[in-house]
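Lab notes, practical 5.
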Amino acid sequence: MARRKIKIKKIDNVTARQVTFSKRRRGIFKKAEELSVLCDAEVGLVIFSATGKLFEYPSSSMKDIITRYNRHFHDNNELDSPLELQVENTSNNIELSKETADKAQQLRRMKGEDFQGLNLDDLQQLERTLVTGLKRVIETKENRIMDEIVAFQNKGIKLEDENKQLKQKMAMLCKEKSSFLVESDIAMKEVVSSESMNNVCSCNSGPSLEDDSSDTSLKLGLPFPN
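Output from the prediction step:
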């Protein structure tokens, strides 16, 4: 009896679908193992079920197989990319060279050189461009001058404020110095007055004239007066 072919489509019955998945999974894992052994091939098989469960079959190490695959995929991309990059770079270089040449010619014309090939309309357009550019230059220069004037004015105001503060500090210092000199003068006068009073007191309390004459007579060997 010949085997009946099954139509390849999604199995609607959940139980039958799960049973078929288990059978087919074991079968494909067996085929992968046979392929690895018979042909000395490195096989890595990864399957996710409908419920999200992972099943895998590595002929050696799944990590090594995935690493080898990524390296091979990366190398192939590098081999394919230089040709595309070369074509793209060539196209970009052509465009850049043309743009550079156009800009250089435009700059020479702005400097008053290389008017060859320009008609009257082109010359008028160039003149308008130069006039517009000159106006912008003049406006920019005036704005810069005004900015510098404002900056100098602000700097002058700042210097005036600093000068005023210094004058106030000098006035305070001079006032403090004058006060100190007055106090020192008063103190000196008080000291001199005190010393004068002490000298007067010392003179008043000194020996009498009679005592002085007696002492003088004794020292000279004269008779003491009665």
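Observations recorded by the TA: The longest strand covers residues 44-48. The radius of gyration is 59 Å.
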